[in-house]
Amino acid sequence: MRLVLVTRLGCHLCDQALSLLRSLGHEPELVDVDADDRLHDLYDWRVPVVLVDDRVVAEGRITLEQLSRAVGKGV
Prior knowledge:
Blueprint: E1 3-7, H1 12-23, E2 29-32, H2 37-43, E3 49-52, E4 55-59, H3 64-71
Parallel strand pairs: 1-2
Antiparallel strand pairs: 1-3, 3-4
């Protein structure tokens, strides 16, 4: 499973999403929405965005319940 968190500097919702993912035992690949034109076009106002195998599974105000359903507990 490829787990990506689309984030941006200074985004408190992004920090919360990262903490939630880590609490489930996952360490996502972090990508900055402002560093890539394609990602910016897709996700600018949607961050944070969690992708599993290139599919959006959660965005915006992300809850532990959403992430637990989408990615489960890590190892």
